[in-house]
Design brief:
single chain, about 700 residues, alpha+beta, Jelly Rolls, Immunoglobulin-like, twelve-stranded mixed beta sheet, seven-stranded antiparallel beta sheet, 11 helices, 36 strands, about 30% strand, globular
Length: about 700
């Protein structure tokens, strides 16, 4: 918080529509003229005896007395310090209480309205926690049919960093509820988590989101903790404000020059290669699924064009182009008109078409900034038309089912009407057009360029987000933390468990909660880049369960092999809610699936013991285990396992085989493992690699 103005100010975390943690003292803080007395009054409402759909008491009527242990109106007086800061504490209130908080310094009075008491959860990590419902809803529009819930509220912490000092408070930010107007802005994982808790536990839920795309775990840790671990870079002190500002300016200027040079050298712009009447007959040809083509790999600009015909019944209907992700930046034109552009590789290319022509030319201008550009392997290239825009198509299986169903319908229609079918056509009043089934595109590289200047990407540097985005939250009372991070640490996975365990300890110290619940997502299935690094990172995440009062939810069945940002976030949020119900709310179920606790060698067999089995282990597929560096065996030898007790699996070895001193056992050790083992609650077992005792 800057102290240039000494007029009365309250932290943005206590503002209109805020959620305050129930059953814990209420912290209110801010700034005022040094030495001034600040009066803080909370007028709490009293439950009317009615309840909402989940059973939460609804408080609507403000009174002077309520019959509770605390009066309906409480006040506190505090004097602003020499630096202008003030802070006070008000009594705790139960879930469902509504209140107003009035703050006055004698000259200025501010009223914080629509305060609600419930359970506040901190959402942290990187882009998969940050990913908004808006992106998910484009693929699954029915998700937003019933979203108006005033008892789910969110606060997005402004994204900033500071390497030199810990911030006392936030400079900005606002609370908002899950109304139809704002729901798209919420973290998708957070929303599904809160929605499940509202249904099962019946308390209001507040979400404070601090996630930042691309951030390393070290960015969320304190300087002191990292230094004590020997994990603070030797050149960390270079990160002064002047250095950061200079490097950001230099990058911005260099990147702008690169873009200007690429555009100036591109004949496609001057000759308007996007126009439908442009002659591309002498261009080369390729399919969009040929992601490994060498012509796409080097930096520069590539143009692609295709003439597309769709069934007459689709003409004039609203549609959306869904072309997955591309590296690195693109513009897409329909008959010469720009329908969408994206400036970096990760967002899906979902571009709206107001009225789909029956025949048209699609043109793509793809700008490759680094080696390895092109189209993402494994992605489908589709046009979703009419009524199909209202269907849930998050999962690849849903797309396949839609194509197969409408292909059958189209075949029936062609037989009835004698119409000549076109490749990829589907549906009647709407469908999914498979553009990949329509064959090759014309393409031409128009510009060769050097690699685009790289950003120093300060989100990858230690401490910065902790200082500016976590420390200012330290006065908040919390129910727990949800953590989804690890993708950015995959390039150096060794030691991640120690970092995560230290982060949990760091935050528990900061928030004054030695038992603060910490629930996190293990990385999902993924096959791009170097997927082997994900295997080791997942195992590091498993090892971090050594810290008590933590839980890890497995997600290797709900990711996307070809997308770093899978859209199927509902299972992730709901599994985190299941973990919370067990870990925090006294539920009878397990917080997570089976986790190995030991691998013991016995004559001619190995015995693996698990925790979190519930009423017992359940096999849902072949139980394949890998012995690594076993004596007298191949370096990696595969054997079947069998459930031998409620918490044990036996892996039978060939007669006379001993695993050896340096041997280890691996399970589900692949980028996209097939689920094969659960507990009695149906929660997936964790992948692992463990030494054999």
């Amino acid at each position: 918080m800057t102290l240039q103005s000494m007029t009365l100010r309250i932290t943005p975390l206590v503002s209109d529509g805020c959620m305050i943690q129930r059953d814990r003292p209420v912290a209110v803080w801010g700034t005022a003229e040094p030495g001034r007395t600040v009066n803080v009054t909370m007028r709490a409402a009293v439950a009317t005896g009615t309840a909402d759909a989940t059973g939460t008491a609804i408080a609507t009527v403000a009174t002077e007395s309520s019959g509770s242990t605390e009066p309906a109106v409480v006040s506190s007086h505090v004097t602003a310090g020499a630096d202008g800061r003030w802070e006070t504490t008000l009594p705790a209130r139960p879930a469902g209480t509504r209140a107003e908080i009035t703050v006055s310094d004698g000259e200025t009075t501010t009223v914080v309205r629509d305060v609600l008491f419930g359970d506040v959860w901190l959402l942290a990590g990187q882009s998969n926690m940050e990913l908004r419902l808006e992106r998910v809803a484009g693929e699954a529009p029915r998700l937003l049919d019933d979203v108006d819930d005033d008892l789910i509220r969110c606060f997005d912490v402004p994204q900033t960093f500071d390497f030199e000092r810990e911030h006392d408070d936030l400079d900005a930010g606002e609370w908002f509820s899950s109304s139809r107007e704002r729901i798209a802005d919420m973290s998708a994982v957070g929303w599904f988590f809160a929605q499940r808790l509202r249904a099962d536990v019946g308390v209001p839920v507040g979400l404070v989101c601090t996630a930042v795309g691309g951030s390393l775990i070290e960015t969320w840790m304190s300087r002191g903790r990292l230094a004590a671990m020997g994990a603070l870079p030797d050149d960390f002190d270079r990160l002064t404000p002047a250095y950061v500002a200079r490097q950001q300016r230099l990058f911005t200027e260099a990147a702008a020059r690169w873009d200007e040079q690429a555009d100036a050298a591109d004949p496609g712009l001057g000759e308007r290669w996007q126009e439908p009447d442009f002659d591309d007959t002498d261009w080369d040809v390729m399919r969009l699924t040929e992601s490994g083509r060498v012509e796409l790999r080097a930096p520069g600009v590539i143009w692609l064009r295709k003439r597309i015909s769709v069934p007459e019944r689709f003409a004039g209907l609203p549609a959306q182009l869904r072309f997955g992700t591309m590296r690195d930046a693109d513009r897409v034109y329909l008959d010469g008109r720009l329908i969408g552009e994206t400036y970096y590789q990760y967002p899906p290319r979902d571009y709206d078409i107001d009225a789909l022509p029956q025949e048209f030319t699609l043109a793509i201008r793809l700008k490759v900034e680094n080696p390895g550009g092109g189209f993402t392997p494994g992605k489908r290239h589709l046009i979703v038309v009419g009524d199909a825009l209202k269907r849930d198509l998050v999962e690849p299986a849903a797309v396949n089912a839609a194509i197969e169903a409408t292909d059958r319908a189209g075949a029936g229609e062609r037989a009835d009407e004698g119409a000549a079918g076109k490749a990829g056509e589907t549906g009647r009043s709407g469908g999914v057009i498979d553009v990949d089934a329509m064959g090759a595109w014309r393409f031409r590289r128009s510009v060769w360029m050097p690699v685009k200047p790289g950003d120093e990407f300060f989100r990858m540097e230690p401490v910065g987000d902790y200082n500016a985005m976590i420390v200012p939250l330290r006065r908040l009372a919390l129910t727990g933390v949800l953590w989804y991070q690890g993708e950015s640490n995959c390039w150096h996975p060794r030691g991640y468990a120690e970092l995560q365990m230290a982060l949990v300890q760091d935050w528990r110290r900061l928030f004054g909660r030695p038992d603060l619940p910490f629930i996190y997502a293990q990385l999902p299935n993924y096959r791009l880049d170097d997927p082997s690094s994900w295997l080791y990172l997942r195992d590091e995440q498993r090892r971090a369960l050594a810290v008590r009062h933590t839980a890890m939810v497995m997600t290797y069945d709900v990711g996307d092999d070809s997308d770093l940002h899978p859209l199927n976030k509902r299972p992730v949020g709901e599994r985190m809610a299941v973990a919370a119900e067990s870990l925090v709310y006294g539920g009878d179920g397990e917080p997570m699936g089976p986790v190995p606790c030991s691998v013991r060698s016995e004559p001619n067999r190995l015995v693996v013991r698990f925790t979190h089995v519930g009423d017992g282990l359940r096999a849902c597929g072949a139980l394949r285990f890998e012995v690594v560096n076993g004596a007298g065996l191949p370096r990696v030898a595969t054997f079947d396992g069998r459930i031998a007790a409620c918490d044990r699996i036996v892996v039978d070895l060939p007669q006379g085989t001993a695993p050896g001193r340096d041997a280890s056992l691996r399970f589900l050790w692949e980028p996209s493992p097939k689920p094969c083992l659960t507990n009695s609650d149906g929660l997936l077992a964790s992948p692992f690699s463990m030494p054999i005792d």
